[in-house]
Amino acid sequence: SISQPAISSSIYGRWRLLHTDNANTASPIQRKAVDSSAFPIYQDIVVDQSKQQLIVSQVVKFNEKFELKVDALASTSAYPLDELTERKGDGNILGLNVLGISKIGDDATVDDRRPDSRIDFVFDEGKFEFGNDFSIPYPVPFRLPFLRDAVKGWIDITYLSDKVRISRGNKGTTFILLKE
Hints:
Pfam family, one: PAP_fibrillin
Protein name: Plastid lipid-associated protein/fibrillin conserved domain-containing protein
Keywords: Plastid
Helix content: under 10%
Strand content: 35-45%
Domain Plastid lipid-associated protein/fibrillin conserved: 9-177
Distance between the termini: 18 Å
Structural class: mainly beta
Main location: plastid
CATH architecture: Beta Barrel
Order of helices and strands: EHEEEEEHEEE
């Protein structure tokens, strides 16, 4: 595996989801959103050069002109984001698994033996895009203060090559992706 994968130049670009194990800690929405058997799903990891900001986007392509794109502000040692403080809650809202159950505390600790292998993120906005001309906002208010902690997460990169990435998310889900 490439060392320091979260800050390696190989991490940037479009990744197509090949497989996920859909951990039972995922939310019902997440289970559907990462089901690549129905529609192609991608993860874009890019730097917004104008803001020097790392962005991780989840993209579900329904067809060539229609997709759902959910953007997250991301943080690594190369692109730190002050807003990304440690997550406090596990995601249960009134005892319900609405947004998925996240690891917190000691279970969420970064592996010191694998420096720069985590990308932290906070979901920021989403939209349904209909070609280049029209879009509709995704109806999840990611920026509401009482939801902000619940929409934080991370991706631990367990393996990275120029073509393949294996990652584990903050809810325990494993993702296998292929570089496009």
